[in-house]
Please model this.
Amino acid sequence: MAETRGATVEFRSVTKRYGDTVAVDGLSFAVPAGRICVLVGPSGCGKTTSLRMVNRLIEPTSGEILIDGENVLQGDPTELRRRIGYVIQQTGLFPHQTVADNIATVPRLLGWPKERIGARVDELLTLIGLDVRMLRRYPAQLSGGERQRVGVARAMAARPPVMLMDEPFAAVDPIVRERLQNEFLRLQRDQGITVIFVTHDIDEAIKLGDRVAIMRAGKLVQYAPPGELLAHPADDFVARFVGSDRGLKRLSLLTVGGADIDPNFDRSRLDGAPVLSPSMTLRDALAAMLASESQTGKVMDGDRYLGALTLAKIGAMLRVETPA
Amino acid sequence: MTLLGDVAGWFADPAHWQGTHGIPTRIVEHLELSGLAVAVAIVLSVPLALYLGHVGRGGFVAINVANIGRALPSLALLAFALPIAIALGLGLGFWPTLFALVPLAIPPILTSTFVAVREVDRDVVDAARGMGLRESQILRAIEIPLGLPLILDGMRTASVNVVATATLGAIVAGGALGRFIVDGLALQDYPQLVAGALLVALLAVATEVSFAAFARATAPAGMTANP
Model:
């Protein structure tokens, strides 16, 4: 299904200095192909600088950045940028060009034939769920969410193996943001593209990241999958940054199916208990149980009774997985 | 009231519409002189302003230097230019006047063009660069089209100023519409004087109106929510 093969991205001791100020300090980490790596941290931590060094909008002072083992610092930056998707917060759509022309930007730069560009634009429009009538519209005629979708489509147009996204969903309202995040995850899985994603929102990082890199004052503090980050924060800074509710956040990464379900629980005692499905997150399950004032949830896989999940079990998981 | 009648009479005289001293010839002379002055100013300032606006540096220095041109009285420039033009064998009239008009046209064109490029949304430029447009492509495909209304605005201001000031040429034996004013004054032929002033005013307004129409026709698409 994946049309694009994602590339690996590796930072090796990357440093950026501005005079005496060190913006990024000896950054080293590797992103596996086809995964989403989220750089997160307070403002001024160097996350955006790190992102912009990948496509050389900022040149590193020292170190190497490798895409599929190839050092991006060698060769022509313009050629490099055409092979890397780029999405920014305000989308940076060209206001004087139609949606179709915006999406076609990189394929045009690469000299694709007209028919191929047209076919690709139509394909992307379907992928991002916009109507073909939108093609002739200008960015000012679109909603914030639509603009953001077009921005993502434009970045993906020439099937780049790597995509850089700088707070792409920060400017839209929370409901639209959630929808865009879900669509983006689906699209990324489908296309198999490697993504480096910058945000200041830890919840967004946990939701989207296969790996999360927490940065502080130019340094990488912790680089781990989100579950591990929540379960074992490397230090007090990370613990504070992920929040005192990190146990609850972690529940949103775990599913009912993966929890400790009691299959021998007497089913007749579960009248009035909320029905939970195995694919539901523990966070949603907890909310459902609290809302119905029930100590237990009835876990059903379709019509099949799997057992009961108790509040006590969820509480136990919180305690076990996040030692104080 | 008699003066107005006399002016109308002056316009009604077919002799004033014919030959090398007729109104059509003077209008053409006036447009040639003004057009060339603005064209020279464009050639001198637009490339510089585009470059400075694109790199985002040095623009305000350039603008301040150019503004000296605005401070220098055109009449003084004309007086300077006259002996030089004569020494170079360029003669009276056209060339000294051109020399006096160009510094008048440069500041609005330089300033507007610089600001036009500078004011293009930096996010849009950043996205363009990040997607792999070369610097020249960013200027050509993004900054110039988006800045065009403001660039034209500067050219319009410059042109109107030049059209209004080109009458000075008549003082140094140039042609153009200033001829009617200067001659009218010298001969105490007030109908001719007023007619010349009216023609200059009309030409300036016409310049303004045609620039506005051109700007509307070339405005970048998609810049309003419901174009």
The mean pLDDT of chain A is 89. The domain at 254-318 of chain A is CATH 3.10.580.10 (CBS-domain). The CA atoms of residues 4 and 191 of chain A lie 6 Å apart. The longest strand of chain A covers residues 21-31.
